From TrEMBL:
Record protein name field: Secernin-2
Species name: Cardinalis cardinalis (Northern cardinal)
GO BP annotations, alphabetical order: proteolysis
Alphabetical list of InterPro entries matching this protein: Peptidase_C69
Family membership noted in the UniProt record: Belongs to the peptidase C69 family. Secernin subfamily.
Lineage: Eukaryota, Metazoa, Chordata, Craniata, Vertebrata
Signal peptide (residue range): none
Gene from which this protein is expressed: Scrn2
Highest rank taxon of the organism: Eukaryota
GO terms of molecular function: cysteine-type exopeptidase activity; dipeptidase activity
């Protein structure tokens, strides 16, 4: 009866249970916690990592409404001469990672290369997550 958004996020970050996977060539694809108000006049708020490994990521709040446009940071790049559309296919490769994913990968590399700076970065990310949760509570 007292499960909060933070409770669900901590479950999705739990490596010991096997829910959060980051090894053996397979990673959690991403995680999501949704807040679905009973009042239909209030918007649903979805917290998504948009990146693998929720234990080293941040849940970002998204509210989907009519006419909304995707943020460019989460849109995969497109290529005029896309190797997937040329015949023969895939003679070359392109980096299809969106900006958020590329930055997440850089953060993971920092966490592994410099654990102290990595802890500070993760702390800053978690503070942003707390601000997102607070903003959601104020919205609802």
């Amino acid at each position: 009866g007292h499960i909060t958004e933070e409770t669900l996020m901590s479950i999705l970050r739990d490596k010991a249970s096997g829910i959060c996977v980051d090894s053996a060539g397979f990673r959690t694809a991403g995680s999501m916690v949704s807040v679905l108000p009973r009042d239909p006049a209030l918007p649903c708020v979805h917290f998504l990592t948009g990146t693998p490994d929720p234990s080293r990521s941040v849940f970002k709040p998204f509210v989907f409404v009519a006419g909304i446009k995707a943020a460019p940071q989460v849109r995969s790049p497109s290529f005029p001469q896309d190797p997937a559309r040329q015949i023969p296919r895939f003679r070359s490769s392109v980096d299809r990672r969106h900006e958020l994913y590329r930055r997440h990968q850089a953060a993971l590399e920092l966490m592994e290369r410099d654990p102290e700076r990595g802890r500070r970065l993760l702390g800053a990310l978690q503070e942003l997550e707390r601000q997102g949760l607070q903003g959601m509570r104020e919205l609802l």
